[in-house]
Amino acid sequence: MHAGQAPQTADERREALKALCVQTQACRRCPELAGTRQTVVFGSGNADAELMFIGEAPGAKEDEQGVPFVGAAGKLLERLLGEIGLARADVFIANTLKCRPPNNRDPLPVEIENCRSYLYRQVELVQPKVICTLGNFATKLLREDQTGITRLHGQPELMALGRRTVRLYPIFHPAAALYTPRMLQTLREDFLRLPDLLAEPAPEQAQCLGPPEPERDDPAPPAAAGEAGEAESGMAQAGSQIDQLDLF
Ligand code: URA
């Protein structure tokens, strides 16, 4: 690959995803979240997945472990995946926010906006055919519309996200289905349509791609954090942690 060229092969895209993951580890776009998080929960799974899930934001367990959907909702997600013959390692899982909102409060609009370019870049690099948005936050963000999940669930639509066209498939959030049997039944029925959706041809991509989203000028780490170069060594440390976590 030459400088300035977009990553194309699966290996190139995986390497670019790793670099993005390392970049997010030092993110301070949301000062409150950067000050309270234990980890940045970038996302995990198959970096070349046909199916991607996008949830809301990490909870306490995810924040501890640096991996999305490791709590009760994640176990349900894994069970439903198993019922259609897929494993967690076959799909890519991410969230609208990469950091846990304190006390699990709702993500703020400014936080969702701050994190949006990371998510769009993840979509661009993983190149999924189908994206399941889990619940209201992810669905409203990606559709850029306030229509709620109760009206939209189970209805696929073609959608351009950044520079990628995907089949967007909103479904209920597994956390909401955990304690509501009727919602679980609906979620299961929507899941059962996924194999057919995945069997459809990949959506056509626009030939004339616009420029990628401009890189933002991220705030520098606080001065008290130390000498110049510390951010870089922090990145290197994050890189080795990522290898250990074997996120993708
Ligand atoms: N709920 C989410 O939306 N995301 C997680 O990672 C965990 C629970």
Return the CATH class.
Answer: Alpha Beta
What's the pLDDT, averaged over the residues?
Answer: 90
CATH structural fold name: Uracil-DNA Glycosylase, subunit E
User: Treating each run of at least 4 consecutive H or I residues as one helix, how many helices?
Assistant: 11
Strand order of the largest sheet: 1-3-2-4-6-5
Tally the structural domains: 1
Major sheet size, sense and barrel closure: 6 strands, mixed
CATH architecture: 3-Layer(aba) Sandwich
Outline type: globular
CATH homologous superfamily title: Uracil-DNA glycosylase-like domain
Output the structural class. Answer: alpha/beta
Distance from N terminus to C terminus (CA atoms, Å) equals 21 Å
Range of strand content? 5-15%
Order of helical and strand elements:
HHEEHHEHEHHEEHHHH
How many β-strands, per DSSP? Answer: 6
Question: What are the bound molecules?
Answer: uracil
What Rg do the Cα atoms give?
18 Å
Q: Which regions have little confidence, pLDDT < 50, spanning 5+ residues?
A: 224-228
Percent helix, as a range, is 40-55%
